[in-house]
Amino acid sequence: xxxxxxxxxxxxxxxxxxxxxxxxxxxxxxxxxxxxxxxxxxxxxxxxxxxxxxxxxxxxxxxxxxxxxxxxxxxxxxxxxxxxxxxxxxxxxxxxxxxxxxxxxxxxxxxxxxxxxxxxxxxxxxxxxxxxxxxxxxxxxxxxxxxxxxxxxxxxxxxxxxxxxxxxx
Length: 169
Known about the structure:
By secondary structure, the protein is α/β, with parallel strands linked by helices. The chain has one domain (about 5-165): Response regulator (Rossmann fold, 3-Layer(aba) Sandwich). Helices cover about 40% and strands about 15% of the residues. It has seven helices and six strands, in the order H-E-H-E-E-E-H-H-E-H-E-H-H. The chain has helices at about 5-10, 30-45, 75-80, 100, 110-120, 145, 150-165, and strands at about 20-25, 50-55, 65, 65-70, 105, 130. The protein has a four-stranded parallel beta sheet with strand order 2-1-5-6, sandwiched between helices. Strands 3-4 form a two-stranded antiparallel sheet. Helix 2 (about 30-45) packs across helix 7. It is globular. It starts with a helix and ends with a helix.
């Protein structure tokens, strides 16, 4: 754990309810995978009422006329392989006002961080952090382009385990 991550999370240690939004480009692959995988982890540990967890996109590409596309079928299938159901999830785009409604925005890659700062205007409370910063750093590759949903699943899982360990210590 780096001091940077620890400093960003200090505000969490006294909160009874933690509000987390996972963010990627389109909200059809990586961020919904992270959302539902984390919800599953929390439920299995009996911590699901201590967190509010959601996901969103920095772009509007997967949201048409206010109706978002469902989770991309290969991502949906990868979750199902692990007994995780993401039925009903539709892509949504993050809004400027979300900054005040969440404690932490956990992104999949550096471009997501930059786009969030553009949407929010700044990150004055240091709420934006990449998922893999909890376990050594790096970006989670976009399986939309790579086609490697197994690798994406494993990378997200590694980051989520580190995140949960950090938030519950």
